[in-house]
């Protein structure tokens, strides 16, 4: 069960610190937890883990493909490896290793890709993954999760360690807007309805969840009742919830810090058209490369804002065709 | 290892594997004959006793592991595993058949005794490193064996792994590179010349040995030396001929090829003859050994006064060893 915060401010805790602490707590209970990194321990905030568990922490150097293969091998003999790199390298440089050595081989590998989308900020276009989830989404049997805030990090990391299989986690390293109250728990594969509404559903993820809540607030002034869903599991997508939202609100807007091609917009659309075709508008990166800048600059540049969501809602509402569907 | 097989016994196993692999491929009509034939002797040494395993319990946790990174040589491994008793020989007809247990490239989820899924070249070394590293963390004495191809060394991941294994002193990793000098499109020196593989791995910090990859005795000695060596991973460079022992030996385009029934019949016939010769040689060696042992025993008995003797216990290990490590015998029956 989860509880949504009353106000939306940046969490004082860094996402990476929560991640490291969660893994250290797990490691204290379970000898099989192993951490791997590809020369980004200082960035990933995993130094405390590496100091506390030097025998179970491996810095493979700048060799991401080798890291994923090693993680796969470790899981062959019962280890539970958590491997990190920036989201761009954790996916683009390792696609085949994740596909064959981990997923196709049915092994137990956890991958953290940090600095998703515009949160890569000053690292610029080369380091700005708008495609990481899209790359991973085409791999069968993998679970894809975008972590919303530190409270979710704490809960999901623990769950993922217990569930056999390949998991890719996408997470901003630094501050995130706190969406959930401490102690909240989450169900992987189920979207969270954060706000009820009847005119439209905004299905958001990551940094766009708080933007969606702000947008819903603003839409109220126009007497538009928007439902807000945090679809933190991108794969397997919560088909049932998407269908329910399509049926009940008859219009959907997606919001993601990722390319809409192959991303959440695609995943939701695929779910919608199967049984409940209603109009969908997508807020996200429109098939463009990243670039350097502050997160705020980039959010405006790529239209990842509450204002953009409001516009998308206003575009989608006239497209609703009431009475067309029998449901 | 006291029960280590003799070179002559391993020769019997090797010819048995070669014969059964050819029969397996014959059933399908085409396949990766080149790279399968070049690793037969290495598989004979490993599954002839060097690699700790239990065919009755393929997932036995204490077993040694083999990562056949050049996964296209699956047919040779399948023949070996079947001869060793991991699955019935009849299953070999499932090679490349939809829904079967023997895909063209190795799959740990499909074939009993296959330890890692491979086929996308370059990836096996990393997986083997992970297994070796995990075993070290688990304080297990299991050895991880790895077979890579020389063409495979075109892949950058091989060298990422080479650097890592040496830096982490993974002495529980014993690797082989099948230096058969050919890759799919031609000779490795023409496609992308890898240079001197032994020098390269040595430069990366490995304990390197170079042997005739079709000489079971030489491979056996190299494995023994690798097991003894501390502080570094081992690389055994196998000087081999792609397609060895068949019509495919050294010919162009032998990575994956079709063959006629006549070609294959001839290869099977020749290999069966070699198997017979190897058996005769092994039997002669065994007879000589027994005769020598009996003579020695007789001399001992004559020299010692016949007092308290606990002879029962001494015989047991010898019998057990024969039972435990009898892949050749099983194979011969099947052949």
Automatic annotation (TrEMBL), chain A:
Cofactor(s) required, per the database record: thiamine diphosphate
Keyword Cytoplasm part of the UniProt annotation: no
Gene3D superfamilies: 3.40.50.920, 3.40.50.970
Domain Transketolase-like pyrimidine-binding residues, every copy: 13-179
SMART domains attached to this UniProt entry: Transket_pyr
One Pfam family in the UniProt entry: Transketolase_C
SUPFAM superfamilies: Thiamin diphosphate-binding fold (THDP-binding), TK C-terminal domain-like
Sorted UniProt keywords: Thiamine pyrophosphate
Record keyword Glycoprotein present: no
Family: Belongs to the transketolase family.
Protein name: Transketolase
Species this protein is from: Sporobacter termitidis DSM 10068
Automatic annotation (TrEMBL), chain B:
Domain (Transketolase N-terminal): residue spans on this chain: 13-314
Molecular function GO terms recorded: metal ion binding; transferase activity
PANTHER family cross-referenced by the UniProt entry: TRANSKETOLASE N-TERMINAL SECTION-RELATED (PTHR47514:SF1)
Compositionally biased region (Acidic residues): 321-335
Low complexity bias (residue ranges): 280-296
The organism's taxonomic lineage, starting at the top: Bacteria, Bacillati, Bacillota, Clostridia, Eubacteriales
Cofactor(s) needed for function: thiamine diphosphate
Assigned protein family: Belongs to the transketolase family.
Keywords: Metal-binding, Thiamine pyrophosphate, Transferase
Keyword rRNA processing: no
Pfam families: Transketolase_N
Residues covered by region (Disordered): 279-335
Protein name, as recorded: Transketolase
Comp. bias intervals (Basic and acidic residues): 297-320
């Amino acid at each position: 069960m989860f509880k949504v915060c009353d106000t939306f401010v940046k969490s004082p805790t860094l996402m990476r610190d929560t991640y490291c602490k969660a893994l250290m707590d797990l490691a204290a209970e379970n000898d099989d937890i192993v951490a791997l990194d590809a020369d980004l321990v200082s960035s990933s905030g995993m130094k405390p883990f590496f100091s506390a568990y030097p025998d179970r922490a491996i810095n493979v150097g700048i060799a991401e493909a080798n890291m994923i293969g090693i993680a796969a091998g470790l899981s062959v003999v019962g280890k539970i490896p958590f491997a990190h790199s920036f989201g761009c390298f954790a996916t683009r440089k390792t696609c085949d290793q994740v596909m064959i050595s981990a997923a196709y081989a049915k092994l137990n590998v956890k991958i953290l890709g940090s600095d998703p989308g515009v949160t890569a900020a000053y690292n610029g276009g080369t380091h700005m993954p708008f495609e990481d989830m899209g790359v991973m989404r085409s791999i069968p049997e993998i679970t894809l999760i975008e972590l919303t805030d530190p409270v979710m990090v704490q809960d999901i990391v623990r769950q993922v360690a217990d569930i056999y299989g390949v998991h890719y986690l996408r997470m901003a390293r630094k501050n995130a807007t706190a969406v959930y109250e401490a102690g909240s728990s989450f169900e992987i594969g189920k979207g969270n309805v954060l706000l009820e509404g009847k005119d439209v559903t905004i299905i958001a993820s990551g940094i766009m969840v708080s933007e969606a809540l702000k947008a819903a607030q603003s839409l109220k002034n126009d007497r538009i009742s928007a439902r807000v869903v945090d679809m933190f599991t991108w794969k397997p997508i919560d088909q049932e919830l998407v269908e329910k939202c399509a049926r009940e609100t008859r219009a959907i807007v997606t919001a993601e810090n990722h390319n809409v091609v192959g991303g959440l917009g695609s995943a939701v659309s695929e779910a919608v058209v199967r049984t409940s075709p209603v109009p969908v508008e997508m807020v996200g990166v429109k098939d463009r490369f990243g670039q350097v800048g502050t997160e705020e600059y980039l959010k405006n540049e790529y239209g990842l804002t509450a204002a953009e969501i409001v516009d998308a809602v206003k575009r989608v509402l006239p497209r609703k065709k009431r009475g067309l569907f029998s449901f | 290892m006291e029960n280590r097989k003799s070179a002559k016994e391993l020769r019997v196993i090797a010819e048995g594997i070669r014969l059964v692999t050819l029969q397996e491929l014959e059933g399908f009509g085409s396949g990766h004959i080149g790279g399968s034939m070049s690793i037969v002797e290495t598989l004979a040494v490993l599954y002839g006793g060097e690699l700790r395993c239990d065919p009755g319990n393929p997932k036995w946790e204490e077993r040694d592991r083999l990562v056949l990174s050049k996964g296209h040589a699956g047919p040779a491994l399948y023949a070996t595993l079947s001869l060793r008793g991991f699955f019935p020989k009849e299953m070999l007809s499932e090679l490349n058949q939809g829904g079967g247990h023997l895909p063209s490239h190795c799959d740990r989820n499909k074939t009993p005794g296959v330890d890692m899924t491979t086929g996308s070249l370059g990836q096996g070394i990393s997986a083997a490193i992970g297994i070796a590293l995990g075993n070290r963390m688990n304080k297990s004495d299991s050895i991880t064996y790895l077979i890579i191809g020389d063409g495979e060394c075109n892949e950058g991941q091989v060298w990422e792994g080479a650097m890592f294994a040496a830096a982490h002193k993974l002495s529980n990793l014993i690797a082989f590179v099948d230096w058969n000098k050919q890759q799919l499109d031609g000779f490795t020196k023409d496609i992308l010349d890898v240079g001197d593989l032994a020098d390269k791995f040595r430069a990366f910090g490995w304990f390197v040995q170079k042997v005739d990859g079709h000489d079971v005795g030489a491979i056996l000695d190299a494995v023994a030396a690798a097991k003894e060596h501390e502080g570094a991973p081992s690389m055994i460079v196998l000087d081999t001929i792609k397609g060895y022992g068949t019509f495919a030996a050294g010919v162009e385009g032998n990575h994956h090829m079709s063959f006629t029934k006549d070609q294959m019949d001839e290869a099977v016939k020749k290999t069966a003859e070699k198997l017979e010769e190897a058996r005769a040689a092994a039997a002669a060696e065994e007879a000589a050994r027994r005769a020598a042992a009996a003579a020695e025993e007789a001399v001992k008995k004559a020299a010692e006064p016949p007092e308290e003797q606990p002879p029962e216990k001494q015989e047991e290990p010898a019998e057990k060893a024969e039972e435990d490590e009898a892949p050749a015998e099983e194979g011969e029956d099947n052949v």
